[in-house]
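Hi everyone, sorry if this is the wrong subforum. Our group has a chain we'd like a structural model of before ordering constructs, and none of us has done structure prediction before. Sequence below.
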Amino acid sequence: MAIFISYSTIDHKETDIVYKSLDNNNIKCWKADIQLREYGGEEYETEIVKQIEQCDAFVVVYSRNAIDSRWVNGEITLAFNSNKRIITFFIENIDFGQKHKLKLPQFQSITIKDGWDLALSSLYKSIVRIISANVVTSTNDIPNEKHKEIMPLDHNRSKGFFSKLFNYLTNNIQ
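Answer:
Right subforum, don't worry. Here is the predicted structure as tokens:
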């Protein structure tokens, strides 16, 4: 599985920064203009629905353009109705649009008001927490199916454990 990135195509430059930052940190992302190059028409919409339903988390790159985008609004609604963990990544200093006041404020929001580096770091950490919470973990061998106990994220564990977990996640989550 991956992180689904929802955005207005008008904001493609800002969205590329988000995508490349996550991709460079081994977070698998699904972004329409990259993954849908060979699709068209009805296949395009079907594939977007499939990817939202299968994603670990849904990141919406939020701007005035996103508020006005029919596609972004539909994707937010589907993610919300699919009980996805939603992160709103504000690229402008704006409030939630009328269309989103009931849905998005209850989820995590990140803004670039204190700079891109801090915002991207916060986004990365949030996604790692979400992915970690979705994985069955143990201090023993991670792929071992005998371990079904879900353990909370414990920052006091050794770096070796987290390196092993991160490597397992990046190699086994599609």
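For your construct planning: Confidence is low (pLDDT under 50) at residues 136-159. The first strand starts at residue 3 and ends at 6.
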